[in-house]
Amino acid sequence: MISEAQILDNAARARFNEEGYLVLRGLLDPELDLAPLRLEYESLLNEVATGLHMDGPVSSAYTDLSFGQRFCALVRETQGTLINHLDITLPQKGITTNTPVHCGPAAFGLITNPHLLDAVEAIVGPEIYANPTQHVRIKPPEECLEQGGLIVGEVAQTVWHQDLGTVMPEADESQILTVWIAITEATRENGCLLVAPGSHKRGLVTHDHDTRSNYSRQAIPVDLVGDHRVALEMQPGDVLFLTKLTMHASLPNLSKDVRWSVDLRYQPIGEPTGRPWFPGFVAQRRSAPESVLANAAAWAALWQRARE
Q: Looking at the DSSP assignment, which residues form a beta bridge with residue 178?
């Protein structure tokens, strides 16, 4: 277990540089840091379900089901498009003035969490920019999708990839740090992440189109990953740091409930983000604290302008 204080030492940074990943056990408190997000998403899912039922795309709002069961039922009926209503970024194409994006205060609070930023500072330095490549991922069980005849994109399973392979070449030299947060328990059964230790030292490798997906996504051919792979089981509040070149994927969710995570990215201020059409923001700037984005309303306004 690595505490928030321990991550700041040279040994932890050396492990990160050598292996390309670092798990920070208990960095965030499940009640103080994560419960606001869970409550916000329960309200959001209720709002979305009610609207979809009123407008006709789904047969029921499923008010009698638990969060996970309700999510699964709505994913099946919407053929996977439900996830667009719950994400904290816009899709890469097909954006209209009505394309949903969630910019709630609890989501913003997690991105700007002081404990999280203190840990990020140890890797990228004190001048921290929140990269707009960010996602809330609620991963349904495989049997939920199969019952609806639905296996779509990353709703089901994340393919092997490097995060640098998902952004524009402008970010090739940017020091982008991926931060993966477990909101629920992540186990081998429910689809925890896999990493290939040391793979970041090989640079950016070939990413081919993944023909198994209904979405346009790129995957590293499995034979390029190598045999050294580690499954990272994590508890709520555990946080994983990845370099932009660390190869990673996920196992399928073979459990009976959802596996929920948030992945964020941070980098030093002034470096290209790789998605210049989407809005990042200054999350911490010790030299000029007045330039830090102050609240969720301002963050939401950035995304509204980007959508327009």
A: 242, 265
